[in-house]
Amino acid sequence: MANLENYKGYSEAFIHPELPLPLPRLQAEQQADLAPVTGTTNNLANYINYSLVLSQSRGFPYFVASNIDGGLFKKVSRTDNWRKDSRIDYAHQWGEELYKARKSDFDKGHMTKREDVQWGQTTLEARAAADTTFYFTNAVPQRAELNQQIWADLENYILHTESVPNNLRIAVFTGPVLRPSDPVFVTKVLGREVQLPTLFWKVVIFTKDNQQLNRVGFLMGQEKLLRKAKIVKSEAVEATAFATERFMEFEDAETYQVNIATIEELTKLTLPPAQDVYLDSRPIKLVLEEVDINARVATPKAFTELGYRISNLVV
């Protein structure tokens, strides 16, 4: 396995050399909160076929950026070799101490999916790439109902229904929404309170003609699942200007698939420009009550009806 310092990470020119795709842009306060990464000037942690930036205060990524080459996808065995990244101060990373704490009834939710970067010219390369997704920097606590069902269905659709069969090169940006109002885990970890993200976003960027980049965005949540399992404290963190109460007031919401502007408003990130395939001409009609999965089980019927089949990704 290559040394961490030799990993190349996300490539902006991956989809097409004449259609560069930069990383999401953080606001100044987020930039100031990045966990330092040894050997870098931008605190970008590169792995194989993906990169991420980590929030120093929260211990979770602001975003991860991955390149997916459907034509070079390889099937390899899963390792589950979770470890911390030695380039980043361990005080800024959550490891087994979080996922084995009392009441930690949640999965290590991959932000970059293992299989997404599981590609290369050889099986050995694909296996090495998949193995690098098992750094704790790439994990965020997710309830199994989200991580193993609806979120997994979306990820599998992107990879196995679109990218691999069509030999597509695509870029995927993913992350938790890190809000000051996120609920607090009931168990202190290493003497610290841990705020658990309740919303997760994903943006897929692709081209159908090698002339125009297109993008689609998705949002899913787990707050009700966390509260139902009594994993988080009942009292909420005091809301700030970044709170999202106003999203609760809207009606006629689209579920899961959302405008990119909605993701940008929630995350404070500026996502790379591209043609928006999905557009809702109404004011933001996102109801977090609908995005948040309340122990719903994903079924083929639900997969079709709930709004995240990416028909526009077909070239």
Automatic annotation (TrEMBL):
Keyword Nuclease: yes
Active site (UniProt): 110
Pfam families: Endonuclease_NS
Keyword tRNA-binding belongs to the record: no
Keywords assigned: Endonuclease, Hydrolase, Metal-binding, Nuclease
Gene3D superfamilies, A to Z: Extracellular Endonuclease, subunit A
Residues holding Mg(2+): 147
Tree of life domain: Bacteria
Domain DNA/RNA non-specific endonuclease/pyrophosphatase/phosphodiesterase intervals: 46-278
InterPro entries, per database record: DNA/RNA_non-sp_Endonuclease_sf (IPR044929), Endo_G_ENPP1-like_dom (IPR001604), ENPP1-3/EXOG-like_nuc-like (IPR020821), His-Me_finger_sf (IPR044925), Non-specific_endonuclease (IPR040255)
GO molecular function, one term: endonuclease activity
Residue intervals of the ENPP1-3/EXOG-like endonuclease/phosphodiesterase domain: 47-278
PANTHER family registered for this protein in UniProt: ENDONUCLEASE G, MITOCHONDRIAL (PTHR13966:SF5), ENDONUCLEASE RELATED (PTHR13966)
The name this protein goes by in its record: DNA/RNA non-specific endonuclease
Lineage: Bacteria, Pseudomonadati, Bacteroidota, Cytophagia, Cytophagales
